[in-house]
């Protein structure tokens, strides 16, 4: 019996093993067939994409029904993409406006700084191009259908104001031209020449309150740094000649640092307009209006460039239907702040190239003698200037304080009438930081006033009423930019694309402020060998680039810009690369303009 049970157990085990083996044989062919069919439809790639960035957002598999509904109804129609209206008129308007902003008007500013005889003809060409551009815009609006894409936009108004300002600026420039060579000294502000070495050279040039003397009159306007000390005419001539020789030997861009600008032109030197200047009626009108005309001209000359850029920006926004409805507040917040940092980059690079050298803003030392104390009232910039002069750091601190003061209530405009949200308070806290750091910067400038005077004077006992070493070790403007960048780089956004772009411009601003602090360190520890020339710290070039690019990327981080990028599948690195390339070209163009201006000034000096 036991043997029978054992036989049955062996048979059952054998059956089980046979069944298992049959199952394995049946499964094997099926698995093999599945692998072959799947392999036949696959395309071999080295790496599968792990994310959906870089493809249009409608192809993202993770969209919620609400998100998909939004993007399916996303409208890409703008003034630039529609076929309505006169396309030729729109293209002409856009082309000529960009030409005016980036080429023609900057060229005219360079000619103006060099007192070139071609300045007024080019300024007239600017006016003609601007007028034709606005006329083309009017033609486009007339030919566009009645159902306007952007009703009640302000671009037509800003364009009309632009032409009005250009007209006023042009006629002010025409009337400000002196009517005779003898009256040249009536039309130019106070100026002073930086001094190379106060200890070894006891004299310096001080221009009259009304004139920027020509080379022939420079020697007559030299005065002693020590009041009551008279020098012989020959000694003054020798010192002035030595100064000129030093300047001529320097072939670098330091030539523009001397406050002796190109000699003013006589009316008969200006092409085309010399016939007008010879007219008796013009001369009679200019005698009455030349002074107020010159004031208007200076008030508009550089600010008009900023307005042209503002008009370009408004036109770009309206043309792409940006800022409609409540989105106007997001657009203004990004474009105003980004535009401020972009403009600061332009000014920083201009300072490196010599802009504002006669006020010590080009990292150069400038001193003013007691002679200037009688003449300060003729120049608004010097009327209330302290002994340490008005520095660029002081101007930056004031603008930071002013902007923070206005931005307190601007942050709540989108939710006007409602309760303050955490987002409103987060933004307004940055405005408080601007108020605090701006005020600290102004107080620091007050504390550094005597330090700047003594640091520029050195060991000399000259009777100086104002002096600056060319910089003020005031960290608060750079400190404000640094923390603005850090705070905004950590500002989480609704989408990963927007967060990444905020990090890009936030880090750029932080890097720029870091190199600005290095500039102060270099100037403090390594004074310039030639005290009257600019130190040209290389760190300012990097600072300018960071401010340029950071401001531009800041302006690209608006909600509607992010939507347009995500809809088309553009990554943050795409716009970042484009911004870097554009800023590099723009910086090169700005430097070319200053080099050209310096060449024009030097050419005029040598030709007289």
TrEMBL record:
Pfam families according to UniProt: DUF2427, Ytp1
The keyword Membrane is assigned to this record: yes
Sequence ranges of Polar residues compositional bias: 211-229
DUF2427 domain segment(s): 73-175
Entry keywords, A to Z: Membrane, Signal, Transmembrane, Transmembrane helix
Segments crossing the lipid bilayer: 92-111, 118-140, 160-179, 296-318, 338-359, 380-405, 425-443, 464-485, 505-526, 538-555, 575-596
Protein name: YCR061W-like protein
Stretches assigned to the Protein YTP1-like C-terminal domain: 308-598
Biased composition (Acidic residues): 239-254
Region named Disordered: 206-254
Keyword hit for Lipid biosynthesis: no
Signal peptide: 1-20
Residue runs in coiled coils: none
InterPro entries tied to this protein: DUF2427, YTP1_C
């Amino acid at each position: 019996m036991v043997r029978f049970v054992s036989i049955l157990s062996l048979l059952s085990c054998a059956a089980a093993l046979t069944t298992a083996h049959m199952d394995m044989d049946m499964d094997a062919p099926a698995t093999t067939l599945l692998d072959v069919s799947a392999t036949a439809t696959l395309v071999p790639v080295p790496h599968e994409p792990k994310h959906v960035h870089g493809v249009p957002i409608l192809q993202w598999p993770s969209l919620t029904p609400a998100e998909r509904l939004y993007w399916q109804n996303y409208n890409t129609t703008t003034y630039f993409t529609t076929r309505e209206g006169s396309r030729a008129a729109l293209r002409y308007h856009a082309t000529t406006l960009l030409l005016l902003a980036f080429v023609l008007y900057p060229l005219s500013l360079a000619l103006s700084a060099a007192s070139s005889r071609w300045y007024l003809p080019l300024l007239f060409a600017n006016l003609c191009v601007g007028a034709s551009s606005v006329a083309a815009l009017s033609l486009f609006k007339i030919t566009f259908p009645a159902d306007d894409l952007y009703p009640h936009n302000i671009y037509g108004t800003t364009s009309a104001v632009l032409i009005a300002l250009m007209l006023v600026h042009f006629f002010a420039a025409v009337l400000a031209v002196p009517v005779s060579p003898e009256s040249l000294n009536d039309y130019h502000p106070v100026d002073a020449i930086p001094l190379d070495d106060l200890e070894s050279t006891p004299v310096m040039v001080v221009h009259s309150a009304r004139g920027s003397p020509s080379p022939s009159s420079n020697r007559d306007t030299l005065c002693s740094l020590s009041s009551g000390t008279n020098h012989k005419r020959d000694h003054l001539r020798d010192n002035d000649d030595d100064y000129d020789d030093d300047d001529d030997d320097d072939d670098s861009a330091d030539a523009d640092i001397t406050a002796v600008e190109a000699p003013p032109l006589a009316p008969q030197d200006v092409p085309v307009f010399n016939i007008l200047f010879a007219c008796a009626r013009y001369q009679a009108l200019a005698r009455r209006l030349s002074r107020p005309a010159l004031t208007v001209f200076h008030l508009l000359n550089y600010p008009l460039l900023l307005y042209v850029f503002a008009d370009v920006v408004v036109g770009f926004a309206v043309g792409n239907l940006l800022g409609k409805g409540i989105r106007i507040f997001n657009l203004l917040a990004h474009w105003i702040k980004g535009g401020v940092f972009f403009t600061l980059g332009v000014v920083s690079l201009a300072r490196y190239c010599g802009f504002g050298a006669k006020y010590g803003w080009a990292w150069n030392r400038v001193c003013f003698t007691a002679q200037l104390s009688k003449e300060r009232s003729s120049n608004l910039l010097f009327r209330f200037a302290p002994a340490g002069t008005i520095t660029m750091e002081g101007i930056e601190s004031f603008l930071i304080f002013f902007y923070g003061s206005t931005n307190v209530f601007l942050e709540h405009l989108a939710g006007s009438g409602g309760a303050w949200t955490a987002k409103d308070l987060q933004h307004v806290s940055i405005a408080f930081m601007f108020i605090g750091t701006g005020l600290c910067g102004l107080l620091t400038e007050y504390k550094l006033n005597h330090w700047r005077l003594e640091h520029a004077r050195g060991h000399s006992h000259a009777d100086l009423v104002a002096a600056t070493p060319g910089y003020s070790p005031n960290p608060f403007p750079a400190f404000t930019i640094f923390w603005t960048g850090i705070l905004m780089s950590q500002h989480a956004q609704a989408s990963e694309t927007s967060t990444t772009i905020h990090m890009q411009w936030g880090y750029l601003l932080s890097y720029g402020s870091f190199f600005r602090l290095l500039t102060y360190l270099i100037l403090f520890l390594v004074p310039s060998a030639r005290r009257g020339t600019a130190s040209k710290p290389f760190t300012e070039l990097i600072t300018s680039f960071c401010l340029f690019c950071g401001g531009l990327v800041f302006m690209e981080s608006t909600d509607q810009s992010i939507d347009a990028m995500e809809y088309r599948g553009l990554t943050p690195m795409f716009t970042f690369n484009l911004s870097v390339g554009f800023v590099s070209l723009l910086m090169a163009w700005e430097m070319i303009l200053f080099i050209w201006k310096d060449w024009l000034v030097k050419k005029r000096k040598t030709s007289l």
